[in-house]
Design goal:
The chain is α/β, with parallel strands linked by helices. It has 3 domains: 34 residues; 190 residues, Rossmann fold (3-Layer(aba) Sandwich); 127 residues, Rossmann fold. The protein contains 20 helices and 15 strands. Strands 5-4-6-7-9-8 form a 6-stranded parallel beta sheet, sandwiched between helices. It has a 5-stranded mixed beta sheet with strand order 11-13-12-14-15. It has a two-stranded parallel ribbon with strand order 1-2. β8, α13 and β9 form a beta-alpha-beta unit. Its EC number is 2.2.1.1. Its cofactor is Ca(2+); thiamine diphosphate; Mg(2+). It comes from Pasteurella multocida. It catalyses: D-sedoheptulose 7-phosphate + D-glyceraldehyde 3-phosphate = aldehydo-D-ribose 5-phosphate + D-xylulose 5-phosphate.
Length: 476
């Protein structure tokens, strides 16, 4: 096999409809500058400049080989390269004319002043549009955002519905997109399954609908996620894009880069577990939710009902310093009852959903669950309660957010002296031992899934009231 790919890059990008400038000598500044000017002159399509280069150019003996890539050239070869390139300056010495050419402070000040004058004239002519523009590029939310989004959440709590959390996600998009004209959505060829379209969605097209607000990315999970990061870096928009949770693997690097760059990219993942059903283990996530939780500066949410779904979306929109992963089910989920205090605490990532007794401080056992398994935890708690066991149920839609809470709050939810704990999640079990400890138990996945209806799979892998109760009794 060849040591490099044999695609015809020029023809490939021409087939995409790009403007392609081929065969530019990557070591010739004049050719590069000319190509850049050609690219700037083309305003109807993106441009690809194909530069032909030699790795290690200037090194007489190591150019065009890996020897100049992964190791120092060495003193003799550096001297030879200096002679070839006619470079007479000492190490780290920058010639004055080169420094002056690269020093953009003065040019930048001129450009900034011109921009400010143009913006001021725009603001005078169109004050409302200018104010809206400024709000968006400054990543500020509308003045009515806090009140309207909270009212939506409270409305959901007051009007229970047993729906799939992917549908709850769509309802949240519908409510929030009407408040956020900067929303720019999309899906990697799964819009009808991810449920990311809303009534105001307008797909962007090259010729028509260039002012749309939804991108049909095609089967390009990595491309979608990287483009979202670019949109976030540009500013003025809040990008969200969706695929199946399993296919997050194709985009992992772009998700990690969003976290590294601290960009507000909203990654939406549906069909979150063996609850996907008959498509089988190739499409059923097991370790993916935990893998997302482990990415620094990424906040991952796996809500248990329509209320937690709306809270997760609200938190993701309000988080300016990094991305969020929002994980939703294919199957319907029952809505949980909550007091006003519990509703407020959803945004803290983990909270007590079911108290064990009136004084609320002395449980015999704590059940911790997320997503579709919260209802299972509640039913298991009812059985144990009937047998005289005092059980607290903790819903933890976001471990990342919960871990950031102050120590007093974390202790109030998971008292350190209560060591008898069982975690329940239809994902890899290993992640949860940080919460249940060596004395605890985890009802989770330790293998790939199988192809069968969802209800049969949950039973097969132990996500039943009987198994949760049995695991609890092992440590009581």
């Amino acid at each position: 096999m060849d040591g490099w790919f044999t695609d015809d890059t020029q023809k490939r990008f021409e087939a995409y409809g790009w403007h392609v400038i081929p065969a530019v000598d990557g070591h010739n500044p004049e050719q590069i500058l000319d190509a850049v000017k050609q690219a700037q002159a083309e305003t109807t399509k993106p441009t690809l400049i194909i530069c032909k280069t030699i790795i290690g150019y200037g090194s007489p003996n190591k150019a065009n080989s890996h020897d100049c890539h992964g190791a120092p050239l060495g003193d003799d070869e550096i001297a030879a390269a200096r002679e070839f390139l006619k470079w007479e300056y000492a190490p780290f010495e920058i010639p004055a004319e080169i420094y002056a050419e690269w020093d953009a402070k003065e040019k930048g000040q001129v450009a900034e002043k011109a921009w400010e004058e143009k913006l001021a004239a725009y603001a005078k002519a169109y004050p409302e549009l200018a104010a809206e523009f400024t709000r968006r590029v400054n990543a500020e939310l509308p003045a009515n955002w806090a009140a309207e989004s909270q009212a939506f959440i409270e409305h959901l709590q007051a009007n229970p519905a047993s729906i799939a959390s992917r549908k709850a996600s769509q309802n949240a998009i519908e409510a929030y997109a009407k408040l956020l004209p900067e929303f720019l959505g999309g899906s990697a060829d799964l819009a009808s399954s991810n449920l990311t379209l809303w009534s105001g969605s307008k797909p962007i097209r090259a010729v028509e609908n260039a002012d749309g607000n939804y991108i049909n990315y095609g089967v390009r999970e990595f491309g979608m996620s990287a483009i979202m990061n670019g949109i976030a870096l540009h500013g003025g928009f809040i990008p969200y894009g969706a695929t199946f949770l399993m296919f997050m693997e194709y985009a992992h690097n772009a998700v990690r880069m969003a976290a590294l760059m601290k960009q507000r990219s909203l990654f939406v993942y549906t069909h979150d577990s063996i609850g996907l059903g008959e498509d089988g283990p190739t499409h059923q996530p097991v370790e993916q939710t935990s893998a997302l939780r482990l990415i620094p500066n990424l906040e991952t949410w796996r809500p248990c009902d329509q209320v937690e779904s709306a809270v997760a979306w609200k938190a993701a929109v309000e988080r300016k310093e990094g991305p969020s992963a929002l994980i939703f089910t294919r199957q319907n989920l029952a809505q949980m009852d909550r007091t006003a205090e519990q509703l407020a605490n959803v945004a803290r990532g983990g909270y007590v959903l079911r108290h064990c007794c009136e004084n609320q401080t002395c449980p015999d056992l704590i059940l911790i669950a997320t997503g579709s398994e919260v209802e299972l935890a509640m039913k298991a708690a009812d059985v144990l309660d009937a047998e005289g066991v005092k059980v607290r149920v903790v819903s933890m839609p976001s471990t990342n957010v919960f871990d950031k809470q102050d120590a007093a709050y974390r202790e109030s939810v998971l008292p350190s002296h209560i060591t008898k704990r069982v975690a329940i999640e239809a994902g890899i079990a290993d992640f949860w031992y940080k919460y249940v400890g060596f004395e605890g138990r985890v009802v989770g996945m330790n293998s790939f899934g199988e192809s069968a209806p969802a209800d049969q799979l949950f039973k097969l892998f132990g996500f039943t009231v009987e198994n949760v109760v049995a695991k609890a009794k092992e440590i009581l």
